[in-house]
């Protein structure tokens, strides 16, 4: 594990020439030289990865959910984690299912008067406001008694596979009365202030709905603008300094999210506000979603598509930058993932099998380290990117839902975030001929040679990854890292994620894939899921041998 920053030597005092060289296998492998310029900081390494989300708000209260929240809080400290969930306003009896939760916060009496019940909401929000946690508050979905089309309200619910229509029913319609909607939001904000304090609630992000251009919203664009105006008015009537934003549209190519985004920003700038009658609407942050895609190739291998996710980010950054009034606002990728269906298990949909393997970890490293830079190219500031991946309650072992844990055992992707959390200090420049440019990936994804990437910090750390869209076992890489500026180190360490390191899925398969593992097997899975640190042997010139396995992430440190 890394030493605290204050106990590390300054990076400029490190190796004048420190080289990390992969062991060259029998069939001589090309060597890539990476030069780390320790005396050339290039800016902050913003922890945009400390954002997490999930469909089922009630997962927050399950043992698996509380266990993972504890893990994530510990990783992020002292910075907070930010958590975005669906279904905080949905009506129901508290049933938890795939893609479904409810709090029953709003009902109406026989005379049509609002009745607020915050019992379940308080339990969820209490967890999401514990130490080191900030809620990214989503007002959704529409309570039954406030829906313009309340029946049928609840879609088919299941714990083992998604229904045919996941977003059917009254929960996804506009309100029958926009003033009652506004009053509900104001009551919720006031209740939050009473429970958590004004200063705390002012720090939260408040947003209405999810993907309003998609089947999640059964209204028109104009009806969403009305929904937003009344939502913002409700929040601001209680807390004028509270931050409101949106619209959380998804991929431009799916439901014309780009058209919706432009229209939304124009509405906030110059449209007639349905709540106030004035021109424009409050906008304190902007949010959108960005997803990749997956499929099985002709040989039955998982084929990811980093191109699609980065292209979406690029598209929305251009749109935001075209509005001078808004280009300096903080931007959040409200869902930022390799593809679009968190609740679709790989056991039923094999193209999502990347979730169980180190391919998810390698994709995450390759994607996260580019998002901030890509937005910055357009003069837009990315504050956070929400991984719509959490955990699921009462599910089979390793069934391939998009998650960080399975029955509280860490999956390889969680270990990538454990490595992200260890990065400290500013970034320094790295010359790397085998790291694909973002423009190359937006054009062709990662279909030819693998993306062998690196990010280095002023704290003596280099995060390396070896990612390829196609899950193969013949894409190992030999790299040569050269540090310039300073004196030679005494030793170096490495933490690895690949098929045989920090990977409980490999161990589970070796066990015969038990669905009722014994206590000893569960202990072995936990042990196999942990990151370990190895000492790297230094040569006389300060070099060390290191191999990047296919679909791997490695953190090299000089203490």
From TrEMBL:
<keyword id="KW-0378">Hydrolase</keyword>
<dbReference type="InterPro" id="IPR000514">
    <property type="entry name" value="Glyco_hydro_39"/>
</dbReference>
<comment type="similarity">
    <text>Belongs to the glycosyl hydrolase 39 family.</text>
</comment>
<dbReference type="Pfam" id="PF01229">
    <property type="entry name" value="Glyco_hydro_39"/>
</dbReference>
<dbReference type="InterPro" id="IPR049166">
    <property type="entry name" value="GH39_cat"/>
</dbReference>
<dbReference type="InterPro" id="IPR051923">
    <property type="entry name" value="Glycosyl_Hydrolase_39"/>
</dbReference>
<feature type="domain" description="Glycosyl hydrolases family 39 N-terminal catalytic">
    <location>
        <begin position="102"/>
        <end position="540"/>
    </location>
</feature>
<protein>
    <submittedName>
        <fullName>Beta-xylosidase</fullName>
    </submittedName>
</protein>
<keyword id="KW-0326">Glycosidase</keyword>
<dbReference type="InterPro" id="IPR017853">
    <property type="entry name" value="GH"/>
</dbReference>
<feature type="signal peptide">
    <location>
        <begin position="1"/>
        <end position="28"/>
    </location>
</feature>
<keyword id="KW-0732">Signal</keyword>
